[in-house]
Amino acid sequence: MGKVTGFVEFGREPPERRPIAERIKDWRENYGEWPEEKARDQGARCMNCALPFCLKGCPLGNLIPDWNDLVYKGRWKEALAALHATNNFPEFTGRICPAPCEASCVLSINEEPVTIESIEKAIVDRGFAEGWITPEPPRKRTGKRVAVVGSGPAGLAAAQQLNRAGHQVTVFERDEYIGGLLMLGIPDFKLGKDVVQRRVDLMADEGIEFRTNANVGEDVPVADLRRDFDAICLTGGSTVPRRLNIPGEDLDGVHPAMDYLTQQNRLGHGVTVPDEERITAEGKRVVILGGGDTGADCLGTAHRQGAELVVQGEILEEPPEVRAANNPWPQWPLIMRSSAAHEEGGIRDYSILTKRFSGADGHVERLHCVRVEWGPPDETGRPSMTEVPGSEFEMEASLVLLALGFLHPQHEGMLEELGVEFDPRGNVKTDGAKMTSVSGVFAAGDMARGQSLVVWAIAEGRQAAHGIDAFLMGETSLPSVKLAGWA
Q1: Pairing relationship of beta strands 393-396 and 363-377 according to DSSP bridges
Q2: At which of 373, 404, 435 does a domain end?
Q3: Which residue from 22, 78, 186, 446 lies 20 to 30 Å from 423 (Cα-Cα)?
Q4: Over the stretch 290-348, which tens digit does the pLDDT of each residue have?
Q5: How many CA atoms lie within 13 A of 216 on its CB side?
Q6: Does residue 163 belong to any structural domain of this protein?
Q7: Measuring CA to CA, which residue among 206, 181, 194, 183 is closest to residue 453?
Q8: What is the DSSP string of 337-397?
Q9: Residue 235: which of 31, 470, 458 has the closest Cα?
C-alpha cells in the first residue's frame, strides 16, 4: 500500500465533464483530460483492504487494489499489465460500466468510494498513448476453428481469448460494423467509436477474422457453421425489445429507444438516412419512457439534436438521495443517480403508468397516464403497484422513445435452427462451461444471461472461451472467472 493515509488526505475527485454549453453542441466524449497528479492522488485513496469487497463487486475479479497502488506509485506500465490480466477491454468498462466495484468499495460505508472506473480509464488510455498496447498474436495455432456469432463485448472477449489460445476465430456480425451495441447502441458522447475501432483493428492484427453484414440463419446458413467450425459461440445479445402493448403504440413517432440510438450512430458514421425514415428530436416535445441508462442515452441524444423539451418518465417511484435502511453496504445502492445527460436539461418524473397513446393523422400527439403507488411485495416477491384514483393526466409529445429494456434474444432463425434449449426467461440455456444443450455450441453475454452490464458481458465471454478451449483441447490454460464470484 503506497499511501496509508491517502483516503484521509484526499477526497473523491473524478475527471471533470466538459462545460454543458460546449458539449451539447458536439458528439465528442463528455469528459476532459485528467491530470496525472489527480489520478495518482485518487489511487492513493485505495485502502488496500484486508478483504477487498471491490473484487467481489466486479464480475471480472479485476485486481483493483493492485493497479490503484501502482498508479499512485507512478508505475503505469505495470498497472496496465495488472488491468489487462482480467479485463480484455478496460477502455470500454472505464467509460460505460456503472461500476459495481465502486458500490462495493469499503470507503462507501461512510465516504465517497475510490474513483476506480476513472483510474481504469486513465491506465488504458495512457497505455494506448504510450504505445504499450500492441497486437498479441498466438505463438502457434491449434488447427481448431471457432465461429463467434455476434461482435458485442461478450463476442469480442471470447474471440480474443480463443485466438490467444491458438484457435482460428471468425466473428460474424449481422450489422455493418464490428462492436455490437458498443458501436451502434451507445452514443459517441459516452464512448467514442474510434475507441472501439482501435481495439477491433488490434484484434484483426492478432489474426481474428471479422465478417460484417453476415446474418447467421439468413445469409449465412447455420449448416455451414456446423460443418466448417469445431465450436460455435453465440453472443448475439438480447434483441427483442420490451413493449407496453397499449393502444396507440403503433402510431408514428413512437419508437423503441434502440432504433433511435442506432440511427444516430449510423448518422455519425456518415450514413445517409432518408427523410421519411429519420427519427429526430429537433424542435419536438420528447417523452422518454424508462429511467435507466438507455433512457439517459436518449436524453443526451435529444439534447444534441435540439429538442424543444424532454421528459423522462419512470414507472417506479423516485429513489432516495441516500441508502435506505434496508439497502445497506455492500449491496448495490438503490439511490438517485444523475448522468451527464441529466445535467444538460430535461424533466424527470416518477410513478407514471402510461395507459395509451393518441394522436391525429396517424402520428402521436399525447400520452394518457396515471400515477401509481408502490406497496409491500405481493406473493411473487415483487412490490405491489396500485393506480392512484383521480390522478389521470396527459402529456404532449411528438416523439416517444421506449427505453424499456429487452426480453430475450431472437428465437426465430439461428437459435431455432440450432435447436438450443431456452431458460424460463427465454434466454439460451447454458451450463457452467457456457455450453448449450447442443454439443459444441456455446452461448455468452446477454443472449445467455439476459440484459446486463458490459462488464458481465466481458466476463461471460471470457468464461465461454475457457469452456470452449477445454472442450476442444481436453484442458485449458485460459483463466476462469468463477473465482470472481460467478453467479
Answers
A1: antiparallel
A2: 404
A3: 186
A4: 999 999 999 999 999 999 999 999 999 999 999 999 999 999 999 999 999 999 999 99
A5: 27
A6: yes
A7: 181
A8: ---HHHHT--EEE-SEEEEEEEEETTEEEEEEEEEEEEEEE-TTSSEEEEEPTT--EEEE-
A9: 458
CA distances from 31 to 15, 191, 192 (A): 7, 10, 11
Expressed as residue numbers, the domain containing 95 is: 6-130
Burial degree of 458 (CB within 10 A; 0-12, 13-18, 19+): buried
Asked if the structure places residue 139 within a domain, the reply is no
Ramachandran sector of residue 434 (left: φ over 0; alpha: ψ -120 to 50; beta: rest): left
384 and 443 within one domain: no
The edge-to-edge listing of strands for the beta sheet with 168-172 is 209-211, 168-172, 145-149, 231-234, 441-443
Residues 149 and 120 in one domain: no
Place of cell 472501439: 196
**Average of per-residue pLDDT across 218-224:** 97
For residue 199, the domain's CATH number is: 3.50.50.60
Same domain, 287 and 351: yes
Give domain status of residue 173, yes or no: yes
Cα dihedral sign for 372, 377, 383, 384? negative
Q: State the CATH number of the domain containing residue 30.
A: 1.10.1060.10
- Report whether 187 contacts 300 (CB < 8 A): yes
Please report the sign of the dihedral spanned by the C-alpha atoms of residue 30, residue 277, residue 352, residue 368: positive
Alpha-carbon distance 333 to 327, whole Å?
7
Last residue of a domain, one of 404, 424, 458: 404
pLDDT in tens, 392-435: 999 999 999 999 999 999 999 999 999 999 999 999 999 999 99
**Locate cell 447467421: which residue?**
216
Nearest to 281 by CA among 395, 366, 401: 401
Q: Position of cell 449510423?
A: 266
Q: Kindly state whether residues 266 and 346 are assigned to the same domain.
A: yes
Q: For 100-121, give the DSSP string.
A: HHHHH-GGGGTSPPP-HHHHHH
The DSSP secondary-structure symbol of 119 reads H
Antiparallel, parallel or unpaired: β 363-377 and 383-387: antiparallel
Q: Are residues 383 and 256 in the same domain?
A: yes
Residue 48 confidence (pLDDT): 83
